[in-house]
Amino acid sequence: MMKSLLLSLKTAPFSLLIGLLMAASTTMLPSCMAPFDAMGTENVNSIATKLPALMGKATEAYTKHEAEVTSLTSDLDKAVSHAASMKKNKEVAESWRLLQTDLVAPFLARWKDKGKLDKDFIKEATTQVTKSLDAIKRAEMAKKK
Amino acid sequence: MPGKGQEIQDALDGLDDQITTMVSEFVKRRRKHYEEAAKKLHASLKKDIRRYGEMLEEKKINRDDFEMLVQGRWTQVKIELLSELSVSKAKFEDIAGEILKITFKTLLVII
After folding, report:
1. Is residue B73 part of a domain?
2. Overall number of domains in chain B
3. CB spacing of B107 vs A121 below 8 angstroms
4. Domain A38-141 carries which CATH code?
5. Interface of A with B in 47-106 (CB under 8 A)
6. Helix (H) or strand (E) holding A51
7. Chain B residues within 8 A of A91 when measuring between CB atoms
8. What pLDDT, on a 0 to 100 scale, did the predictor assign at position B4?
9. B71 falls within a domain
């Protein structure tokens, strides 16, 4: 009777220790992806609001919106740098890079070059940017808090 | 009488089927998801490229616009695929966490 009581007293702390180890393992286990990134989410939400709105203004003269373009280009640079600086964030960082170099930069360069762009072209290019930002947002939201 | 080590070994062996089923179900679900996503991406890509072609034919856009839109659409696909990969990694973490929980729960019962 005494022996079993002593044994139960011994096993209880041991179980507790295992429980603590379990909790520690699940939280400290090497993860294959970056944890939830509040700034990354904020970046994608902010740019998803500003960028399509600016692209919609490309029917007007580029010179009229040059300051807005500079500001947005700077925001985009920051978002790209932030994503690249995060560990285990390869896919999201590459998505931002592609968005900047292959979608936004050519559009802005064309606007600057031609002065104004046609509404049909703008509509299609804006849809591509919006859907790409939606995809980046989905990837950011999948990260664990 | 078998020692604690043997008891733990037996319990872990007993988990083999459960873990195999869990991983197998996960892979099946993801595969189905990938197939559906690939079909959807391809259908949407074809629809958009056809529309750009029609716009070019109707002279709503010029040749340079068309080429830029096709190039941009390809970039969109790449970004969407990267997003799928990222979401899939998160789901993989879920299943890895579940396996770890089951293993520890089993060991706790024995210990």
Report:
1. yes
2. 1
3. no
4. 1.20.120
5. 91-92, 94-95, 98-99, 102-103, 106
6. helix A38-55
7. 82-83, 85-86, 89
8. 77
9. yes
What is the residue extent of each domain of chain A? 1-30, 38-141
Choose the mutation target among B59, B79, B95, B107 for the interface with A, i.e. most A CBs under 10 Å.
Answer: B79
Q: What is the mean pLDDT of residues B17-37?
A: 87
Distances in whole angstroms, Cα of residue A38 to Cα of each of A34, A59, A134: 11, 34, 16
Give the tens place of pLDDT for each residue, A69-89: 999 999 999 999 999 999 989
- The verdict on residue B110 lying in a domain is no
Is B50's pLDDT higher than 90?
yes
Cβ–Cβ < 8 Å for A133, A44? yes
Q: Domain limits at B61?
A: 4-105
